[in-house]
Amino acid sequence: MKVAIFIPCYVDQFYPQVGIATLQLLEKLGVEVYYPEKQTCCGQPMANSGFEDLATNCNNLFVENFSGYDYIVSPSGSCTLHIKDHLHVEKREAEAAHIRSHVLELTEFLTDVLKIDKLPARFPHKVGLHQSCHGQRGLHTSQMSELIAPGFSKPQHLLSLVQGLELIPLDRADECCGFGGTFCVGEEAVSVKMGKDRVADHLHHGAAYITGGDMSCLMHLEGILRRQHSATKVIHIAEILNAG
């Protein structure tokens, strides 16, 4: 299959190691990977702020960059969900529709398409898993705890395949971290309090690392950890799955 990787702009600018780990992991698993070099922001910040009409050029460019691939894979649940729900280009709607139905967050792709049941990864540390709202509630990468239904978690399944990794329990496994894109700017105090609560749950259970599928959420938690002078670090799940 022919797979393009879609790297969010904040990953490209602040956490390039996540994009590199995503590429290396997919190549280790035998995937033919392409990186469209003209890709930019997907337009999610404008849509989150109520100005989706300003993302027209982002939509046009996304279709131009990512048409013709079997799948588009991204290490970001929020950006993936934005494309699934909002990518429309009037003059190229057939191509946009194909992209919407074939864009996948990394753990979705590994679990649902490649059906990974073993990995050559090793990460001997205590890890807490933050399951982001966009991934869990939008992409259904894990079950919501308020539902009376069988539990599942695609990120947790993949982490269970990593040698030496100890996944810690959490009191509130699917609680929001408070980042919420532009929410953390408009409602700073609420966002910070939610983030502190999320961090406290991980620290209470002894996490050496906090991981997840959205670097935006992890960036929010990382800022709180740094201000608390904590030794606990954040790490994207792609980096763990590619470790060792």
TrEMBL record:
<dbReference type="Pfam" id="PF02754">
    <property type="entry name" value="CCG"/>
</dbReference>
<dbReference type="GO" id="GO:0005829">
    <property type="term" value="C:cytosol"/>
</dbReference>
<dbReference type="GO" id="GO:0016491">
    <property type="term" value="F:oxidoreductase activity"/>
</dbReference>
<protein>
    <submittedName>
        <fullName>L-lactate dehydrogenase complex protein LldE</fullName>
    </submittedName>
</protein>
<feature type="domain" description="Cysteine-rich">
    <location>
        <begin position="3"/>
        <end position="84"/>
    </location>
</feature>
<feature type="domain" description="Cysteine-rich">
    <location>
        <begin position="127"/>
        <end position="221"/>
    </location>
</feature>
<dbReference type="InterPro" id="IPR004017">
    <property type="entry name" value="Cys_rich_dom"/>
</dbReference>
